Amino acid sequence: MIVENKMEPKEVLKKWIDAFNNADIDALANFYSDNAVNHQVANEKPVIGKQAIKQMFENEFRQAKMICIPENIFQDDEWAILEWKDPLGFRGCGFFHIVDEKIIFQRGYWDKLTFQKLYNNDEK
């Protein structure tokens, strides 16, 4: 009998961070289930579906070189929680609902005005 060891949500999140920091959009997209929801509360609407989430990352990485430095990673059952900062001191947190090693729901909290000021995106 072969027993498959699945990664805990916290471990999936650590791999997601690696892909994010490498701007590996294909790897990032593969962490999401086909019908995943990514809701960054600074944005008006959630992004729904793996392909739409992939497009979101493509757009965001064109706008800025983003780096996630984890400050704290917690796990509560199927949830992984991340407190992060970037090299410029920008901070936020994210909640990831992960089932069978796939993100089915993500919610992120960060300040859009601060992001725009730090990354000069207010002109776009």
Automatic annotation (TrEMBL):
Annotated Pfam families: SnoaL_2
SUPFAM superfamilies the UniProt entry points to: NTF2-like
Record-annotated SnoaL-like domain positions: 14-104
InterPro entries linked: NTF2-like_dom_sf (IPR032710), SnoaL-like (IPR037401)
Gene3D superfamilies membership: 3.10.450.50
Name of the protein in question: SnoaL-like domain-containing protein
